[in-house]
Amino acid sequence: MKASRILACIFAALLLASVDISWAATQRAENRREARDVRQETRQDARQTKQDCRAADMQSNAGCRQDKRQTKQQGRERARDIKY
User: How far apart are alpha carbons 48 and 21 in whole angstroms?
Assistant: First the structure.
């Protein structure tokens, strides 16, 4: 009688722990997806930044490349903020 109660309590504790672990894994997966989406949007924004820069003929090609790098770096930082 007592042993069955102890086993039931242990089983319940294990069940609750597994639910908590799976919830945390799901949350991490959602964060990774959101961060990936931010990085993908950033890539397109960086391309557009460089195209606009070159079309406006405001800077040299190297200057436009640097603007693109800065745009991508800002996107990476936003993605890290979301992910971690």
Answer: 41
